[in-house]
Amino acid sequence: MASIHPIRPPKENVALHDRAMENLRFIRETMEGASFTAVSGWGQVGIGVTALLATMIASLQPTIHAWTAVWSVEAVLALAIGGITVARKARSAGMPLLNGPGRKLALSMAPPLLTGAMLTPVLVEQGIFAPLPGMWLLLYGSGVVAAGSFSVRIVPLMGMVFMALGTFALLSPMEWGNVLMGMGFGVLHILFGALIAWRHGG
Asked: Which residues are paired to 36 by β-bridges?
């Protein structure tokens, strides 16, 4: 009587299955590491508009402390607008926000922003106001450049322009600070935001 042997898939099929799984794993990891395109162009435009309003309001303040307070409020407002609009765009595109490149983008952006948040009250307490516009523009620009390595090409370019403007602000008279802040956080955000929205969808 003939013996019965269990049917087993050929070794070739097993190897093919393993290679297919490896390919799928590679594709998934590549997609997770791809450029984070959920940076919201219209969110950047919104930040620019509020920054221009802050520029006008700050120019009317009677003291440098009040001027600093206006821009501090604008910084918080800008972070809220940026966070909300990025989250909305990522969700609508079905992109991960808290892992992969989105997480890397946030972690790259956070250190320069935290540095500015910690240095500002120290300088204000000591009565050192002249470097603030240049420092803010430089730190923000450096954060955008670092985070831009996980985003589309136009994002690090925007950061470099911010850094160039910040360097110019450090070398400029203090009286130019408010206008340069408006040019950076206002005009540049609007221009680059419109480009991002046009090229990368919203």
From this structure: 151
**Per residue in 76-135, pLDDT tens?**
999 999 888 887 877 776 766 666 656 777 788 889 999 999 999 999 999 999 999 999
Question: Scanning the structure block, which residue is given the tokens 């700050």?
Answer: 58
Residue 105 main-chain phi, psi, to 5 deg: -60, -45
Chain-centroid distance, C-alpha 189: 11
- Read out DSSP for 134-176? HHHHHHHHHHHHHHHTTB-THHHHHHHHHHHHHHHHHTS-GGG
140 token code pair: 């923000």
Whether 37 contacts 86, CB under 8 Å:
no
Name the one residue in this structure whose structure tokens are 């607008």: 81
Position 17 confidence tier, pLDDT thresholds 50, 70, 90? low
Mean pLDDT value across the chain: 83
- What does the alpha-carbon distance between residue 191 and residue 28 come to, in Å, rounded to a whole number? 34
Cβ–Cβ < 8 Å for 116, 144:
no
Q: How many CA atoms lie within 13 A of 98 on its CB side?
A: 0
Span 23-60, pLDDT tens digits: 656 555 444 444 456 678 889 999 999 999 999 999 99
Domain ranges in the chain are 33-200
Q: At what angle do helices 41-59 and 64-93 cross, to 10 degrees?
A: 170
